[in-house]
Amino acid sequence: MSWVSKTLNSTLGRKLLMSLTGLFLILFLIGHVLGNLLLFKGDGGRAFNEYADFMTTNQVVQILSIITYVSVILHVVYSIILTSYNKKARPVPYAVNNPGANSSWNSRNMGILGTLILIFLVVHLQGFWYQMHWGDMPRVTYDSGEYKDLYRVVNFAFQAEWLVALYVISMVFLGFHLAHGFNSAFQSLGLNHKKYTPFIQFLGKAFAIVVPALFASMPLYIYFS
């Protein structure tokens, strides 16, 4: 067995891979939310549609998309492996069980939060990503050319109360997941120091609030406007 296989199959290696894929997905969330903010531009969807077209046709973006898909799969698979390993390592709970004294609620329920987010991700991809790539999309023409009108599809989708509620609730789950995952990723990579760890913790909390809130604001804005 090579050193790569040994590393990836060790507990430390799995945690490192979870951290690296998690941080990459955090970068993806930043780019994704910034692009989606174009929904608020008030230009009838032109900027958003042009952005969506760029994201589905640019070759560099396509390479980054493949890396993102792989990161999601690895993050999910290794989280399942680590959860299973931890349960096997301690099949019998401690006699005195007071988990809240030593850990946060979200840190103890990362598996559940991750599963709920994964379910949401499947719904999201089917509703928008799949439709953008292979669905029968309406089209709109600007002076810059003809584009798939994803803006119209998004506006139509978010007229459904259940879908708006699903997105908002899922963003709450994402916030809890990020609140622990952000700091945990840096800790697993050994990036702990008394000088900058408090800043990382602050940044993690801020990120876990701001980014999910921005995502949740989009379906709410469309529905109520």
UniProtKB/TrEMBL annotation:
InterPro entries cross-referenced by the UniProt entry: Cytochrome_b-558 (IPR011138), SQR/QFR_C/D (IPR034804)
TM annotation in the entry: 16-40, 60-81, 110-130, 162-182, 202-224
Gene3D superfamilies listed in its UniProt record: Fumarate reductase/succinate dehydrogenase, transmembrane subunit
Keywords: Membrane, Transmembrane, Transmembrane helix
Protein name: Succinate dehydrogenase cytochrome b subunit
UniProt organism field: Negadavirga shengliensis
